[in-house]
From TrEMBL, chain B:
The chain crosses the membrane at residues 12-34, 55-76, 82-101, 180-204. This is Ectoine/hydroxyectoine ABC transporter permease subunit EhuC. It is found in: Cell membrane. Belongs to the binding-protein-dependent transport system permease family. The gene is ehuC. Residues 13-205 form the ABC transmembrane type-1 domain.
Length: 267, 228
């Protein structure tokens, strides 16, 4: 495997380098730079529509950046080298990159045509080439961890939102990702179901060395679980600090007013 | 009715069912190729699929049938008349059903495809394992309409002397002179066949819905009761 030429040091898992993303005339990311270390839990906060989700979607290769580069684990995500130049990646390269990245969506997106167990086993069998028995073994363990052993034969439609989201977490973990992207995973849930999902995520963050990049409006959760919180606004990271500092003594006025609005609303 | 006339009825019924079933199966093939083609990322694939649907939706089945039976032989190919009938009907109904396929595929929520990408499915696996199983459920009710349209269109083949139900009815009418009775019987006959196909499609719809963990309630207003 060839080394990418601006190879970052091995203690960087995610590296955004002057990433630009536009939707029409609307610039969502303005030469965004940031990095995440392996095993770190980083939370992105900021106003709605500021582009936090776009960052996750770029990492999951659901969108393509207009400029700049993204590297994951020292390899270019949606570019590849050809003749010493960076060119847009082909499907094969993208599939190799996606192996290391998992995502949990706001709307769960379980496959309604598969029962719970198959939702968790299908991708490891198809994309990782696991045997059915291996995949089922792993799926049962994961479903037990998220507290849904008794729902293995249920259809997703028969589950509550919180249960569906826990299946979606198990499904993402079944692919053994190095990086897990959490896109407002509790925003579509009834309030009383949020705690169960967050508890599962905390447990995973504590017991695995997965690198997390999380977009959430659950400030208490962000404070409890994050190693670092980034305040994101107007296409840029405007503040980047450990949670105890960012939530108690935000340095930036914009962070202060945002937290004020979010936390006042919560009280 | 004499057994001689009854044998016309059976032959006609057999050919009508044959035309409907094989027309539907072949039409389904055309519909999936064209419907998925119109959802393709490649412009030329979309173009070919669009030309097919637009042309064959616009052609009257009868004219197409005449073309296959009377014009194709002038180029040196003699199609089996029954096959020509099946082909003409399938090309026509396939063009309609292609739009059903396209619409149903488009209606699968984008989040489903994104989840499949995130789980590293290949484009083919996304289609095969995620998109189609969900889209097919939505296709069945409009396919039922297409199937009934096809059944009714099969009566056109009587004009090129294929002995379908309508052709047999004409023969019986000619030999008995019972015009009113024969045509009334013919209408009832098509109605009963249509009910039979509708029942089968309803069964398929239930099976498909069950695969998504849904149930289709019976009765006209069943859905409303469930929603309430």
């Amino acid at each position: 495997m060839s080394e990418p030429y601006s190879s970052p040091s091995s203690d960087v898992m995610i590296q955004f380098d002057r990433v630009v993303k536009k939707f029409g005339d609307h610039v969502v990311l303005r030469e965004l730079d940031f990095s995440v270390k392996p095993g770190e839990f980083v939370t992105l906060i900021g106003p709605s529509g500021s582009g936090k989700t776009t960052i996750l979607r770029l990492l999951m290769t659901l969108e393509t950046a207009d400029d700049g580069t993204i590297q994951v684990g020292g390899e270019y995500l949606s570019h590849m080298e050809r003749g010493g130049k960076l060119v847009p990646a082909d499907e094969r390269h993208l599939r190799n990159q996606r192996k290391r990245i998992g995502m949990v969506f706001q709307q769960f997106n379980l496959f309604p045509n598969m029962k719970v167990l198959q939702n968790v086993t299908e991708a490891p069998v198809r994309a990782l080439g696991l045997s059915k028995a291996e995949a089922e073994q792993r799926a049962r363990e994961l479903l037990e961890m998220v507290g849904l052993s008794d729902k293995i034969d249920a259809h997703p439609m028969q589950l509550s939102g919180g249960q569906q989201q826990r299946v979606a977490i198990a499904r993402a973990l079944a692919m053994r990702p190095q990086v897990l992207l959490l896109d407002e995973v509790t925003s579509a849930l009834d309030p009383e179901l949020v705690a169960g999902v967050l508890a599962v995520l905390k447990e995973i963050a504590r017991t695995t060395d997965i690198t997390f990049l999380c977009v959430t409006h659950e400030m208490q959760f962000a404070q409890d679980v994050s190693d670092r919180v980034m305040m994101f606004d107007q296409g840029q990271v405007i503040e980047d600090a450990p949670p105890e500092q960012l939530f108690t003594q935000p340095a930036h006025e914009r962070t202060r007013s945002f937290l004020h609005a979010v936390i006042d609303r919560a009280v | 009715m004499s057994s001689g006339l009854m044998s016309y009825v059976w032959e006609g019924l057999g050919n009508t069912l044959l035309l409907t079933v094989f027309g539907a199966l072949l039409g389904l093939v055309f519909a999936f190729i064209a419907g998925l083609g119109r959802s393709s990322e490649r412009t030329w694939v979309r173009g070919i699929a669009m030309v097919y649907t637009e042309i064959f939706r616009g052609f009257p089945s009868l004219v197409l049938l005449f073309a296959l039976i009377f014009i194709v032989p002038t180029f040196g190919y003699q199609l089996n008349p029954l096959f020509a009938g099946i082909l003409a009907l399938a090309l026509n109904i396939g063009a309609y059903a292609a739009e059903v396929v396209r619409g149903a595929v488009k209606a699968v929520p984008p989040g489903q495809i994104e989840a499949a990408i995130a789980l590293n499915f290949t484009p083919w696996q996304r289609l095969r394992k995620v998109v189609l199983p969900q889209a097919v459920v939505a296709m069945i009710p409009p396919f039922t309409n297409n199937l009934i349209e096809l059944l009714k269109a099969t009566s056109l083949v009587s004009l090129v002397y294929i002995s379908d139900l309508t052709f047999s009815a004409q023969l019986i009418r000619a030999s008995t002179g019972e015009t009113a009775l024969v045509f009334f019987g013919l209408l009832v006959g098509y109605g009963v066949i249509a009910l039979f196909f509708t029942a089968i499609m309803k069964l398929l719809e239930r099976m498909a819905a069950r695969s998504l963990g849904r149930t289709v309630p019976s009765g006209l207003f069943g859905r409303k009761e469930v929603a309430a």
